[in-house]
Amino acid sequence: MHHQPWPPPSPRVRELIRRGAELALTPPAAWLAELDAATLTGAARRQIAADPVLAAGTRRINRANLLVWAAANVRAPGAPVPANDTEPALAAARDIVRRGLDESALDAYRAGESVAIRLWTQLACTLTSDPGELRELLDVSLRSIAAFVDDTVTAISARMRAERDELTRGSHAERRETVALLLEGAPITRQRAESRLGHALRPPHTAAIVWTDDPGADLRGLDRAADALAEAAGQARPLSVLAGAATRWVWVHGRPDLGQVRAALDELLAVRVALGPTAPGVDGFRRSHLDALTTQQLLARLTSPSRLATHDEVELVALLTADPGSAGRFVRRVLGDLEGAPPEVVEALRVFIAEQCNATRAAARLFAHRNTLLRRLARAERLLPRPLARHTVEVGAALEVLRWRGDPAGRP
């Protein structure tokens, strides 16, 4: 994209821009939080925010765009900055296309631009009190930011078009198209779908979302995890669809052995897996996948550190945390001081409730002496704002939310 050139800044303003850019190279955490909030909120960006891989990619791009522009202005203050079409930005574009989203997803760049302009303006006002210098500084730097974002969006849009063209050709495209038709409930016959997928649809299915949000991860680990799921279910190979550079949609027949899956993930440290329930037929194929997506989205919403989760485990928590703000208030109200208690105290009470308030079974499950468990339960009871005996269901639900939330206490 060609932009109307702007005159080079005066030596004094060049020095001011350089000074501001040096500060921007180490942005305050509040800047990054505001950029992330702007680019991951709103109806247009709901699908990106709900997807852990896309959300992580957006956060990385926010930081990359800020640092690319700032570094360029340290080197050559006020000069045009080339588009950020580096590999991380292009990888994010590929993932957006593979989720079936179009260029409207790039609206996040514009939302980020608005925040960046406001933050830069605030910073510029601290660099000089001279109205003439400030006017020139803002004129040059705001033109530069706008041109940089325009050029970057143009480059990323071109990459998305190329990626879309690539996805419409070949066997992968046919497999992905068939899966999309099944998930949408389109009128494709079971026999035709099985022929195109090479995968029987009558038996019970377990769907999985296999992904990584580590930008440095070896993506071959995703395919190894998919194979491990099939092996854990006693079959030769899974049905696996490339949903994004860092995500696989996987189906296996039957129910994988979770112990085997956990053992495999111990060797694939950057890989995460969300499992749906096991259900038969085309409807089971679809329903298990949608529940696996719900599970993955819950882990993202709660910033959970868990690397393996099943829908059966998190279904109640998913319902309770649809509104994270309300869920947080519920946990604080029900648990009181217990919310911040040591993990062993929180876990003791959670397991005690899960074992129907049977101390002997809870102690065995925790591999703890019964007296140790009773001391922890007594401490937990003192920290609760209301008696446990009258509010067991509420406390149990709040502890499950805490278990899956990205908190030091109660992590699975």
TrEMBL record:
InterPro entries assigned: CdaR-like_regulators (IPR051448), CdaR_GGDEF (IPR041522), PucR_C-HTH_dom (IPR025736), PucR_C-HTH_sf (IPR042070)
Domain CdaR GGDEF-like stretches: 191-297
Domain PucR C-terminal helix-turn-helix: 346-399
Gene3D superfamilies (UniProt xref): PucR C-terminal helix-turn-helix domain (1.10.10.2840)
Family: Belongs to the CdaR family.
Name this polypeptide is given: PucR family transcriptional regulator
Natural source organism: Actinomadura luzonensis
